[in-house]
Amino acid sequence: MTDKKTSRKPLGPRSTPIQKRSKARREQILDVAAGLLEKLGSNSLTTIRIAEEVGISVGTLYHYFPNKEAILYAMGQHWLEQMAATLQSPDNQPQDIDAFVEHFVKQMLMLYRQQKGLLHLVQGMFAIPQLMPLDEQHDDLVIDYVANTLPALGIDKPKAERQRIGRSLHEVSHALLLVVVNQSPRRGNNTLAELKLLLRSLLSSHQR
Question: Could you tell me which of 131, 113, 22 has the C-alpha nearest to residue 75?
């Protein structure tokens, strides 16, 4: 649990790395932290342990990030930036419901698998006050994408209704993708097949 002093600390980096070496160090910190997050979980992750694994002092670590929450925030922000770039790609123009579901699930699964410690990060985004804005951004990002895509799939409803459908699709896909990345390949493939079936059924029920 975060103490009151920690919760009042800013989440932004203490300085913006300009030199290549500084940028590389920042990325190293985030990569090491992600690996430790996957092994230890959010509660056991500490700046001391991260600094030890990177091979720097805690004081040097604080030059880049003022606290653990700032590190987790930067990880979540990076994941959402990758998701935004993926959803905005010209390759994400759907042709029909089947093509949309296949491509959407494939792209999202790739992003979910790339981020080490994602389950713990997502739990933090939902439960840690400093990270909660990232959870809202995640929801808005996917919901808006789906809502704006629906007319091309023959689901031309008022925006509020399209956003409601988008939220249903997002909640189902998000929950099951988090399950898939923690399952064995065989079980994961079965869950993916069920996810695609659910999404196709959801979207098909709203076609005119």
Answer: 131
Could you read off the pLDDT of 110-145 as tens digits, one per residue?
A: 999 999 999 999 999 999 999 999 999 999 999 999
Contact 84/171 with Cβ under 8 angstroms?
no
pLDDT value for 19: 77
Task: Name the token pair of 110.
Answer: 């790739």
CA diameter of the chain: 61
Banded model confidence at residue 89, pLDDT cuts 50, 70, 90: confident
Is the torsion defined by CA of 144, 82, 121, 1 positive or negative? negative
Q: How much is the pLDDT for 92?
A: 66
Closest CA to 122 of 65, 81, 80: 80
Confidence of residue 208 (pLDDT cuts 50, 70, 90): confident
Going by C-alpha positions, the residue among 99, 119, 114 that lies closest to residue 176 is: 119
Alpha-helical regions (H) of the chain: 4-7, 20-40, 47-54, 58-64, 68-87, 97-114, 118-127, 132-149, 159-180, 185-204
Closest CA to 147 of 133, 158, 136, 134: 158
Encode 94-112: b = buried (16+ Cβ within 10 Å), e = exposed: beebeebbebbbebbbebb
The per-residue pLDDT for 2 is 39
Alpha-carbon torsion (19, 23, 24, 26), positive or negative = positive
